[in-house]
Amino acid sequence: MTIQTLDRAPITRPKSATPWRRNSATKRISIVLAGTLPLVITIFTAQYFLLPGATALLTVFIPLQLVASALAAIKVGGRRGIPDAILTVVVLSLVSLVVIVLGSVLFNLARKGSHAISRQFLFYNSTYVTSSTSLDYGGVAHAVIGTFLIVGLAAVVTIPLGIGTGVFLTETRSRMRGPVRFISQAMSGLPSIVSGLFIFSFFAVAGFSVRGGWLGSLALLLLMLPTIARLSEEVLKLVPQDLRAAAMALGAPRNRAFFQVIFPAARSGMITAVLLGLARIVGETAPLLMTTVPTNGTNYNPFSGQISTLPTFIYKWIGAGSDFSVQRAWGAALVLMILVGTIFVLARIFGKQKF
Amino acid sequence: MGSDVTKLERVDLFAAKPGRGDRIFFGFAGLAAYFSFSIVFLVFIFLSWRSASTFQEQGLAFITGSTWSAESGTFQILPMIVGSLVLVFLALIVAVPSSIAMAYFIEFMAPKRVARLTTNIIDLLAAMPSIVIALWGAFIFTPVAAEWGKLLNHYFGSVPIFQNDVDNYYRSPFIGGWILAIMMIPIITSVSREVMSRVDKELINSAYALGATRFSAMRRVVIPTARGGILGGILLGVGRGLGETIAILYTINLIFHVNIFRILENRGGAVAPMIASFYGEADEKSISALLAAGVVLFGATLLVNMIATYIVMRSEKKMAS
Amino acid sequence: MTLDNSLAPEAGNTVAQFQSDGDAHLETRNLHVWFGERHVINDVSLVFPENSVTALIGPSGCGKSTFIRTLNRMHELIPYAGLAGEVLFKGQNIYSSGVDPVDVRLSIGMVFQKPNPFPTMTIRGNVLSGLRLSGTRSRNEDRLVEESLQRASLWNEVKDRLQSPAGSLSGGQQQRLCIARSLALSPDVLLMDEPCSALDPGSTIRIEETIRQISKNMTIVIVTHNMQQAQRVSDQTAFFLAEDNNPGYVVEFGSTPQIFTTPQDRRTEDYVSGRFG
User: Fold this and answer.
1) Assigned domain for A155 exists
2) β-strand B68-69 against C108-111: which pairing, if any?
3) Based on the domain organization, do A101 and A199 belong to the same domain?
4) What percent of chain C has pLDDT over 90?
5) Core-most of A88, A146, B169, C128, by most CB within 10 Å?
6) Shared-domain flag, residues A305 and A163
7) Domain containing A266 — which CATH number?
């Protein structure tokens, strides 16, 4: 197809402007067959042999799809196309696997959790609730409050420390920056249970063990700190050097330059960093198991007494074993997931804003 | 006009000393940094000190023996160590291809919107609390995986690893391995993706100009160039897997008998879930033993994470040059 | 095949049109290129005579690099790429259905602006990388390596260290290595997109010598910003131009001496005498 022009004005692009995608009839048939036949055959085979869905997928569909794609690839592009076709099938299968898993988790969470969710579930605590109590009574309010208190306390201490570390790594010229960065990064691999063990044993004296919400906060602090430090360093690095130079050229001392110029510029990134750090620890169970004692009632004081959080609530009710208690656990898990999801979405929103 | 200009007070240039504001500011930053730095050592040293008695009493048998008994005062965690390693190994078999495939998909195959969506999916998976995965794993996934185990045993039972003399397919390393893979995939994927995106686009174009197909370009250019970073990502995943406590708690069975090959049977274990499980009813000596186990766990994950961080940092430097 | 200068456009508005005898080695006919909806190359018909060097000159941004990538089907790798018209190689349209782009790229090779040998491969590995990547076999790899490096004027400098990593070479040597690895596939045409602009003058001269050497039995199309280079190295020159936001097109195409000493078009004359660019 030729377009003859003698002037220099732009021409709108015709529909057929991708000649490399043109395929003959046989090629198109091969592609369509390769896309649909394996699926159809799998469905029939699964019905006939009464195979459960997931098994059928793995054992029948994948090999069939691989063979079909390879054959179609030969038709379309010659022997050279086979590795590409196989690569495409393998990659897409694995990606689908991961997506299906996530989908299954979210779907089941919604399905099973919604049984337990009700106004009363969200606003009442679990005083007098046992494993045989029906779902008309009791709720997770105390656990939600506990989560907010303990996570909030952790955040209040961690945020300055984390941002301070970030400042140290970007605004100073100290020789310790390399080691601090390296160790901080390696620390992000601290197993959550070791954090719990540490805090617990640090405060346990001669047979008396101390428990309390604030200890849980300390354990969470150790897990949150590396994330905040690393992310705030990254965010601060993104602030253009010119901004700092301009502030200093105007005679501002370094700390003023930071609080009035650099930090505001990095603010949305900082908020994202904090939110991501929070998302990480909101769902942590193991450290809280070692440092707090779950309870059924509401405790507004993180510094003394037993206190429940969403993760320990779930843990406890799974352990109770009855149908009702497991349903409570699902309900609480749904609430927890909604909380994490909200933080996640907020982090995305703030992340998109440019300074 | 000159006399209307406001005269500002002059400051003596040579009296400059960092103002108090700056001293406080940088002082605090320094403190925060040193806190981040030293906390690692603090944790390790403190836990070691607190569990020293266990190490003294048990000796090397702590990590080479297989008995755990509070009554006789013997605490040995070899089966748990082996169990952790087996689980991580099984998880890697699933997680590594999946992660590299996802990273490749996002970077080189998917159109922009799909790529962004997939990245969000991975990030969401990373943010999933492990207790939620544990719940899903225990009640939704276990029946399915147990079926798979039965099928494997049915058709391939002659192969040693698929044998099952106990006829109980629940809470096996096989199932735990899958769950652990789910926890490891997000971090391996995001590091691999990061590294793949730094491969010079012109390098890939050169490969195509030399007649490469997508597969050969990936195999001979992308993967080798990104190799270091991918390896670092895998190690970070391993670190995560070794430390995972809650997600696998309901899918493994803590048995103090070393089980390497019988992955379909319901015995195995792992160090982190063991600590969490035994903690509730532990007496003083047991607590010390649990702390000792924690030291071993922390040491291992720290080592793995440091190597991983080193590899990733070095590969980033190489690619920037 | 004749270059009919009587058809060169008068100073003004028409786009260069060419007749070929039909045996031209490589030619484009009414080629249009789009990126998404944006029209970037407008109706280019050029003929590249066999075993000669054709230079593409013009100010930056007028589409020379885009154009050259249509010649070996690299353009279609860019998302939302569009193309109309024909690119004929040995008389056959390389965009007809049924043509494997890999085959096209094996016959029409390309060297890029920044030297980019594969960092994880040795020098020898780089030379043979084309074979590995395309699945081509060679009967005698050692001989092929030596021949390719000889033709790229690199053999003497690296013959004792074929197993060293490619990164240990200087910029000019790396670019010659990239030329060698393209040559190893024995292409009929070699496309070069500003191959010397990232190099020092000494390396540039060596590569220009190499180009003159290999053009004895290979067709070469070279994009260059450097007009002196075009004069030194090429037999024909095409002058590309894009005005305002309009797509690029060929203003004038002729033998190199003619373009630079007696350009027919006013714009060509302005460009080659440095009045803009």
Assistant:
1) yes
2) unpaired
3) no
4) 68
5) A146
6) yes
7) 1.10.3720.10
Q: Kindly state the tokens that stand for A140.
A: 């997770």
**Alpha carbon distance B42, A142 (integer Å):** 34
Burial class of residue B218, CB neighbours in 10 A (0-12, 13-18, 19+): buried
- What tens digit of pLDDT does each residue of B38-66 get? 998 999 999 999 888 888 888 888 888 88
Domains of chain C: 13-272 (3.40.50.300)
Given an 8 Å threshold on Cβ–Cβ distance, is C82 in contact with A4?
no
Chains that touch B (3 or more CB pairs under 8 A): A, C
In a domain, A13, yes or no: no
* Residue ranges making up the domain that contains A346: 141-352
Same domain (yes/no): A149, A82: no
Q: What residues of chain B lie within 8 A of the CB of A275, using their CB?
A: none
Please say if the pLDDT value at position C136 is more than 50.
yes
Residue in chain C closest to B221 (alpha carbons) equals: C118
- Give C135's contacts in chain A (Cβ within 8 Å): 80
A5 to chain B, minimum CA–CA distance in Å? 31
Q: Are residues A151 and A69 in the same domain?
A: no
Using the Cβ of C95 and the Cβ atoms of chain A, whether some distance falls under 8 Å is answered with yes
Is residue C226 less than 8 Å (CB to CB) from chain B? no
Residue B293: is it exposed, middle or buried by C-beta count within 10 angstroms (0-12/13-18/19+)?
Answer: buried
| pLDDT 10s digits, A188-237 | 888 999 999 999 888 876 556 678 888 999 999 999 999 899 999 988 98
Residues of A in contact with B34 (CB under 8 A): 176, 180
Whether A102 and A145 map to the same domain: the answer is no
Q: Which residues of B touch C135 (CB under 8 A)?
A: 213, 216
Contact B284 A333 (CB under 8 A): no
pTM of the model: 0.87
- Closest partner CB to A98 (pick from B28, B185, B243): B185
Do A103 and A162 lie in a common domain? no
* Contacts of C104 by beta carbon, 8 Å cutoff, 6+ apart: C72, C73, C89, C94
- Whole-complex ipTM: 0.88
Q: CA B74, B240, A55: angle at the middle one, nearest 5?
A: 100
| Average of per-residue pLDDT across B268-287 | 86
pLDDT in tens, B134-151: 999 999 999 888 888 888
Indicate yes or no: CB of C34 within 8 angstroms of CB of A78. no
**Residue B4: Cβ within 10 Å count:** 5
Give chain A's domain count: 2
Within a domain: A128: no
Q: Does C135 lie at the interface with A, CB-CB under 8 angstroms?
A: yes
Domains of chain B as residue ranges with CATH: 64-320 (1.10.3720.10)
> Do A168 and A94 share a domain, yes or no?
no
pLDDT for position B11:
66
pLDDT digits (tens, 9 = 90+) for A238-281: 888 888 888 888 888 888 888 888 888 888 888 888 998 898 89
**Residue whose C-alpha is closest to residue B315's, from B235, B205, B198:** B198
Give the pLDDT score at B189: 96
Closest-CA residue in chain B for C73?
A: B209
